[in-house]
Amino acid sequence: MRRSSNPELACPVGPVVDIVFSRWTTPILWALNEYGRQRFVELERRLPTITPKVLTQRLRQLERDGLVARTYHAEVPPRVEYEITALGASLGPLFAHLATWADTHLGEVGEARRAYDAGR
Question: pTM higher than 0.85 for the full model?
Fold first, then answer.
């Protein structure tokens, strides 16, 4: 199989990284996977440093990508809930593997950074 000379096309995980590892995607998916269906304000409480505007943008993008489902309840007041989809939940093993890698190797990364910074 011939690989593309275009670096963006040569790496098959590039599109996945773009979808899944943007700044707030991983914490949002983790919260929905860990705690189940949640309202917007519940997500805001679980992710206190995200702004409402950014949370709205990320939820819309995740819904567009099929990783999160939005349910609107026509009540007074209206209620909107978000939950992870089967597609979003299928990322669980990837996140678990990355968590294991982090537990095993982040100390080494810290040491490498300190050594690099000390040599500058």
Answer: no
